Amino acid sequence: MSNPMTKFDDITVVVQGPVQTFQDREQEPGITEKCLSSVRAYLPGATIILSTWPDQKLDGLDYDELVISEDPGPNIRNYHKDGSPQFYNNNRQIVSTLAGLQHVKTPYAIKLRSDNFLTGNAFVAMQQQFPKRGEPFSFLRERVVVSNVFTRRYAKGFEVAFHLSDFFYYGLTEDLLKIWDLELLPDLPSSQADSIRGGPGGFPIDCTQMFWLRALNKFYPDLSLTGLLDNRPEAIEQSNQCYANNLIIGSPADIGLGLCQKFSGNARIARTKGKCAQWHFFEWQDLYRQYCDVAFQPDVTLRQRVRLFLTRLLHVYPTKLETVLKLRKG
């Protein structure tokens, strides 16, 4: 739900990323203009900071402040079996996000990718609707609203920990800085390629796990994962407590987020198999009840719970067997 009559002048939206196709990253034509227009429509009075790279075509774009950062280039986090490096845009995301947040002067801020857009402002009210907090791993001053797209509960059929989406963040500016004030990643030397495949199944941690863990490690250095599928009971418990005590996890429809074509329609993450592997809003509410407010009643019906269970029975749990068989074959 949205309230277009409300003023949002205590919010700054950091739209981060390329405006057009940049280097090796494809960009949907016109998507950044759509992104900026959506902010004006759903957050009237909010400040828009466009944090992007040099030599982008900015004609016709509606923003209040422009932040241009030097491109740090792609980073190497892994290597293919043939020894060639795998390139990621992790440092680019850190630089454009942090540079924008450092210019924010309002108490609240949003991190919004330049290839996504708003469909409402429900996240503003949602951020204040879950006031109780537990003590363990509660490092943010207030809750931060995030998207469940790529906030996976399951990956390759296995339950996973700390797999937090990097798409959308809304909360206090100081809290977003706690999350995104990160050191740049050095390139992984080829001699260390085997060391990051030491976790269960040999899968290194995902980029989303890496970002969230690096933020958490500034406050809790002992939190760690050995790989994507490191789902030791203590890791899952710690991950759930971090979610419950710091965040609110909702779907794009719940929070008012629109996705570019790359992540919608027939995209793998937008299909039933991809969606049912993500955390659902009522599942996060279950965590809130468990760790923060035992009197809270999640907004969910039995039918919804059964439907999700059956969908996972069809799409998620069989994938676990497939993964196990593949690993046995080597």
Automatic annotation (TrEMBL):
It comes from the Bacteria. Pfam families: WavE (PF07507). This is WavE lipopolysaccharide synthesis. It comes from Marinobacter zhejiangensis.
